[in-house]
Amino acid sequence: MVTIHEGRPGLSRRELLKRGGVGAALLVISGSAVISPQHAWGLETTALKPETMATLIQMARDIYPHDQVPDKYYAIAVKSHDEAAGKDAAHKELIEKGIADLDQKAGAGGYAGLGWEEERVKLLQGIEDTPFFQAVRGGLVVGLYNQKEIWPIFGYEGESYSKGGYIARGFDDIEWL
Length: 177
Fold this sequence. Notes:
single chain; two-stranded antiparallel sheet; 7 helices; 49% helix; globular; disordered N terminus
């Protein structure tokens, strides 16, 4: 993902503009961080390789695709795997080996290098019964959808018990169904 330009690691300005102009999200690996210069956010890794985290972000987007949800929230959702890997060597091995196997199945360029969502989803369908896939998918259910910042995107107003319940608050006004 990182290219060498004039002997320095990173992307040339021309390569950055070329990749950014395609419309796809560009994630740059720099040291122990995954950075999105296009959307001004970064995620530092402590236990997992940054390349692993970048692939996990793409994998998360492919498992629960929401075009209107920025990558930043997928990064927050998979950060828990980096934290767990720092405390549990078995979890670190599960994630690193799972990503390595996924990259190998994808061929040259790895999973994140596949340009078509259909190709990536087909690979994920082939591993959906593995402990690796189930760990990532299971973590996403809570890690992604418990982020209050994205609730308005889905039209979810949060819990209603403290506000008298849904009946008195227009429970049938959901426009996204």
